[in-house]
Amino acid sequence: EVQLLESGGGLVQPGGSLRLSCAASGFTFRSYGMSWVRQAPGKGLEWVSAIGGGGDTTYYADSVKGRFTISRDNSKNTMYLQMNSLRAEDTAVYYCAQVQGGANCYWGQGTLVTVSS
Amino acid sequence: QPVLTQSSSASASLGSSVKLTCTLSSGHSNNIIAWHQQQPGKAPRYLMKLEGSGSYNKGSGLPDRFSGSSSGADRYLTISNLQSEDEADYYCETWDRNTRVFGGGTKLTVL
């Protein structure tokens, strides 16, 4: 059974940094692309970033480019999202997802990031 | 990049059927999309992947009440024999080489 468990969320001041983790199990982690998707309170889903199975290809939404960095450690079956220069508008629940054939096919339960002074 | 358009809300009676629509922007009418369901307070759940031909591939354990179809740039999710647990937000998603996009979501109310 595919399981994805996010961690690392919390309260951070504007301009601060946070690193999210996504621990994966139940599948061959290195064989799948992964992505981060966020959802601001009361809003819809917004794609944030994606990474290929080998970790050498990365993609970002314009809203986070230059501030967020996606990475993965296939030896630990874990994906990361390093978030710098955080803004109030980054406040959201952050979900990690496994990508199969282009689509986000399995989702984690999410971790809440709140950017506020 | 593609844009996906969804109606903000829909409603239908318990036991009836409903057809939700996701429309792809010009130049992207052949894109494959995915449908996701998000019940209140829960994480999204993948429902199916849907091609422009109308062929679809459902996620594991999804009841037969859920089906997909396509017409031109429109992608549809049909839910038959509506149950109370189908009340949720439904999002479509598409992607190309460098990006992926979600529609704004449709809030389905089961009356």
Which tags fit this structure?
heterodimer, A: 117 residues, mainly beta, seven-stranded mixed β-sheet, four-stranded antiparallel β-sheet, B: 111 residues, 11 strands, 0% helix, 51% strand
Description:
The complex is a heterodimer of chains A (117) and B (111). With 117 residues, chain A is mainly beta. Chain A is built from no helices and eleven strands. The radius of gyration of chain A is 13 Å and the shape is globular. The relative contact order of chain B is 0.34. With 111 residues, chain B is mainly beta. In chain B, strands 2, 4, 5, 6, 9, 10 and 11 form a seven-stranded mixed β-sheet that branches. Chain B has strands at residues 4-6, 9-12, 18-24, 33-38, 45-50, 56-58, 66-71, 74-79, 88-95, 100-102, 106-110. Chain A binds chain B through residues 35, 37, 44-47, 50, 59, 61, 95, 101-110, and chain B through 32, 34, 36, 38, 43-46, 49, 59, 89, 91, 93, 95, 98-105.
Count of DSSP-assigned helices of chain A = 0
Instruction: Summarize the largest interface: chains and residue counts.
Output: A-B, 20 and 22 residues
- Beta-strand percentage of chain B? over 45%
Low-confidence parts of chain B, pLDDT < 50 over ≥5 residues?
none
What does the radius of gyration of chain B come to? 13 Å
Shape of chain B: globular
**Quaternary structure:** heterodimer
User: What summary fits the major beta sheet of chain A?
Assistant: 7 strands, mixed
The radius of gyration of chain A is: 13 Å
Q: Element order, helices and strands of chain B?
A: EEEEEEEEEEE
Short characterization:
With 117 residues, chain A is mainly β. Chain A is 0% helix and 55% strand. Chain A is globular.
Q: How are the SSEs ordered, and which strands pair?
A:
The complex is a heterodimer of chains A (117) and B (111).
Chain A: E1 3-7, E2 10-12, E3 18-25, E4 33-39, E5 45-51, E6 58-60, E7 68-73, E8 78-83, E9 92-100, E10 103-107, E11 111-115
Parallel strand pairs in A: 2-11
Antiparallel strand pairs in A: 1-3, 3-8, 4-5, 4-9, 5-6, 7-8, 9-10, 9-11
Chain B: E1 4-6, E2 9-12, E3 18-24, E4 33-38, E5 45-50, E6 56-58, E7 66-71, E8 74-79, E9 88-95, E10 100-102, E11 106-110
Parallel strand pairs in B: 2-11
Antiparallel strand pairs in B: 1-3, 3-8, 4-5, 4-9, 5-6, 7-8, 9-10, 9-11
